[in-house]
Amino acid sequence: MITNQVLLLLMLSILWPTIALPFAPGNIGNLFGMPESDGKILQRSKRGWMWNQFFLLEEYTGNDHQYVGKLHSNMDKGDGNVKYILTGDGAGTLFLIDEKSGDIHATKRLDREEKAMYTLHAKVLDRNTNAELEPDTEFNIKIHDINDNAPKFAKEIYFASVPEMSEVGTSVATVTATDADDQTYGNSAKLVYSILQGQPYFSVDSENGTIKTALPGMDREVKENYQVVIQAKDMAGQMGGLSGTTTVSITLSDVNDSPPRFANHSFRVTAVESTVIGAAIGRIKADDPDVGRNAEMEYTIVGGHDIFNIITDQITQEGVIIIKKPLDYETKRDYEFRVEVKNTYLDARFIHGLQFKDYATVKVTVEDVDEPPVFTRNPYIIEVHEDTAAGSFVGVVSARDPDADNKPVKYSIDRHTDLERLFNIDSVNGTITTLKALDRETSKWHNISVVATEINNPRQTTRVPVFIKVLDVNDNAPEFAMSYDTFVCENVKAGQLIQTISAVDTDEPLVGHKFVFSISPTNPNFTIDDREDNTANILTRRGGFSRREMSMYLLPVVISDNDYPIQSSTSTLIVRVCACDSRGNMQSCNPEVLPFSDGLTTGALVAILLCVIILLMIVVLFAALRRQRKKEPLIISKEDVRDNVVSYNDEGGGEEDTQAFDIGTLRNPEVMDANKLRRDIIPEMLFPFRRTSPIKDNTDSYCFIFIFLYLFS
Predict the structure, then answer these.
(1) Alpha-carbon distances of 112 from 5, 51, 107, 144, 417, rounded to whole Å
(2) Residue 625: inside a domain, yes or no?
């Protein structure tokens, strides 16, 4: 290895002509700023330094301080009166100067990569007076580079990918290294790239580090991952240069270059006949060495199938066979169909000459199970007329055992769906009958569930909904659609409309409702006009109504329908007599208060008199009862014992006759039981007790009401 001293000598030899030229005879004057003369002695007009810049090699390894250079001023006569002072970058620490000789030394090893140049200032002083002999002058110390840094990559390992089957020269990735050495000086930072591992599959561009494919037809299904080692070497790759390496992990990405293939071209699947529609009965799988969307497959049944279908499981890429229609072991037990598989995504570069599909045969065997009964219909809709008597026929449901044994079936009604127990069913033949009469106006539909159960296996049951529609029978008469508030004016004329009425009927005839309205033809006050649209007009037959004569009229209206049998009803329309203005607007309907002398008739006076007499009799009777209740009891004390005089036609029973008389009654006649008499003799009371029965009807109230109504009518 070349030592620093040898390198220093080499640099001095290179730079010597430049350094020595100013000191050659005839040039010294130029160096010091003196003009040429013809042997005349001239005086120095200004100072002249003997340096421009210094060069220093980095990474000095000697034991002594590294010599940098020498400062010298023409003011220095060599008598030791001149002192050199150094300031600036590293002065006094990195760089030291001999005050007398001006020699500069570096005290530490310097690294160009840390700092490439130092700027310092030099002064020349008089040692005795410290006066400046020369102005402050700047100079540089430049650090010369040596190849002491190896190339480095940003990462220890890189990841890259390239499609399989790529052509030779396809770019994979570019990796670059950096060198901290001086790129402007020599070849210390000039890098050359090479591949140490990964041939013959890949190559690298020596100048820019671009990795490319070098082998055609690389197949991911054969080998997917490659480890490539790239080297970067400085000194332009020459011997003695420093180098750095990195690893590039290259993965071949997939392309659809492999078609799907069945490992077995025949599959056998078993399914029970009770499998529900849409359920899976088996799976088949084709192999595709590709990955991702290049391995996505689609399964289909060639020509389709009525019973089965096949779909693709997007996660496992399997073909799932499902049921489209129910299986029946008793009808057909074996099926066979052909399945095709193909890729959903094709790459146009690889479809030439390859068939990207495959075929397989699937055989399905149906197994028998004990099935529940099956109804001939689902649901049942049955119609029955309302008012049908209990025990009447409604309809029949039928179920059978679909198994080959055809076991017997019994029927029942789920009572949770028939809480009112309106229906019954024959457990053997499935005949539904009524238990009660049905009313369409109460419920138009009855929804019940009928259960069919195998007699030999009660766990096998099937239920079916039965919807029973109750048909209408004309069993309801029409009536007023609403309550009418009808009045007639006192000054009304004959033939004037006072009310339009309509009717409703809870029945629903097939041809719609048609109502007929009528009143008594002998009615002297009102008449009716049937408009034949289920409404009618009430008209006055006369004029001159008076509230004094009659304040209210009750008009019976007969309403009939047109269904069979015809139903009719009589509704009463209340017509009040009211006072109206000239336009017919009602003003008052209250009865007029008339003078007593003018309005009372003989019949009214007789009625009032009778009511007064009855009231007086009630008051007298009430007072008599009050006095009787206030009388003292017969027995005041326990010692006061009195008897009622009773006559019997036989002799007493003596001491043994204990039922003939109750002494307790004598002590408190208020609690005497009138019904507890002697059982062997009917007594004949000399003074029978008579109790006045209370008046059952409120005659006094009726009289008051009658008087009030008559006075204010």
Answers:
(1) 18, 22, 15, 7, 101
(2) no
